[in-house]
Amino acid sequence: MKDQADKLRQKMLESEETIGRSIAVVSGKGGVGKSNFTTNFATLLAKTGKKVIILDMDIGMGNVHILVGNSVKYSLKDYLDGQMALEDVMFKTEEGVSYISGGSGMSSLMDWSPAIFDRLITAFEVLQKEYDFVFFDMGAGVVDWSLDLLTSIEEIIVISTAEPTSIMDAYSMMKFIHLKDHQKKFYLLCNRAFTVEEGLETTQRLKTVMMKFLEKDVHILGSLPEDPVVRQAVRQQSLFTTIYPDAPVSQTMGKLVQQFLTVETEMKEVHASSQSSKFLSKLKSIFSRGRG
User: Fold this and answer.
1) How far apart are CA 124 and CA 179, in angstroms?
2) What is the pLDDT of residues 23-81, one digit of tens each?
3) Which of 115, 144, 205, 245 has minimal CB crowding within 10 Å?
4) Strand-pair partners of 53
5) Rounded distance, CA 14 to CA 55, Å?
6) d(CA 90, CA 209)
7) Are 189 and 159 contacting, i.e. CB atoms less than 8 angstroms apart?
């Protein structure tokens, strides 16, 4: 296995391709539609010609493969414990989005042991070279290992609903991450908004409190409307942007993707000039401190 890791790293060093963006999708609480957003958002990104992969990091409760209507035999767990090669745990949807399932029982492996950390870093190095966007679909809340990831990942999409408890949990999540890394870039999304005004009010409220109490400016990505086709698509184990492309929520998602790509274009020059991944550098630094 060590030989395989060395070969993958050598392949990385010989390549001069631009390193892809690492983006985590988080929520302060469960049930806000985080995984549904991630799979549909990633799918529309892929349709623009971008190479996209999703890592399902909702440990023990991953559902990305269910949302896209696939069953998986192997998961990230099988790769990390040395049972399978990275390419053997990667799958692809009909729409062209690659993904890796978290797998049940994976929490016992996420202790940043040297062997597991080495395989994790190897995987991230390869994926950031092969894909334009690497999405981490995180579980609700944080534990030690997920905080390590969130502190390292370059950009965070924070999803909330208009419910006061959801807004408070989203703020707490951002505050927790911000106190670990003041340079983190946050995007705000209100999901299942009943009106455009409700969505704007929710994201603006979060933006305002972040500036007031933490002096942190965050970017408003937008909001998605409450739409019955979302639940219908989940029941059919299909993506709503695929089977209901003309639905209001699908049309709005398309606009969010275009807005996101505008930001991506603005950042392209910075990323193109990067010779190493800040994400991986930060993660390695955290591991070194923890083991030092």
Assistant:
1) 25
2) 999 998 888 999 999 999 999 999 999 999 999 987 656 678 888 878 888 988 889 88
3) 144
4) 98, 134
5) 25
6) 40
7) yes
Task: In whole angstroms, give the CA distance from residue 195 to residue 252.
Answer: 13
Which two three-digit tokens encode residue 169?
């949990």
CA torsion angle for 30, 80, 84, 13 (degrees, to 10)? 110
- C-beta of residue 223 within 8 angstroms of C-beta of residue 200: yes
The stretches of the chain forming alpha helices (DSSP H) are 2-14, 34-46, 64-67, 76-80, 114-130, 144-152, 164-180, 196-214, 228-235, 240-243, 248-272, 278-291
CA end-to-end distance (rounded Å), the chain = 25
Q: Work out the widest C-alpha separation in the chain, in whole angstroms.
A: 56
Tell me, what's the pLDDT at 15? Answer: 46
Distance of CA 107 to the CA centre of its chain: 18
Tell whether pTM > 0.85: yes
Predicted confidence (pLDDT) at residue 127 exceeds the cutoff of 90? yes
In single-letter form, the type of residue at position 140 comes to: A
pLDDT tens profile 83-115:
899 999 999 999 999 999 976 655 555 566 788
Angle at 43 between CA 19 and CA 247, to 5 degrees: 145
Cβ atoms of residues 29 and 142 within 8 Å: no
What is the residue type of 82? G
Record the tokens describing residue 225, joined without a space.
């409307």
Phi, psi of 184 (to 5 degrees): -60, 140
Q: Would you give the distance in Å from CA 270 to the centre of its chain?
A: 21
Determine the Cα angle at 197 with ends 192 and 200, to 5°. 75
Supply angle C-alpha 234, 46, 268, rounded to 5: 135
Q: Quick one: which H or E segment has residue 216?
A: none
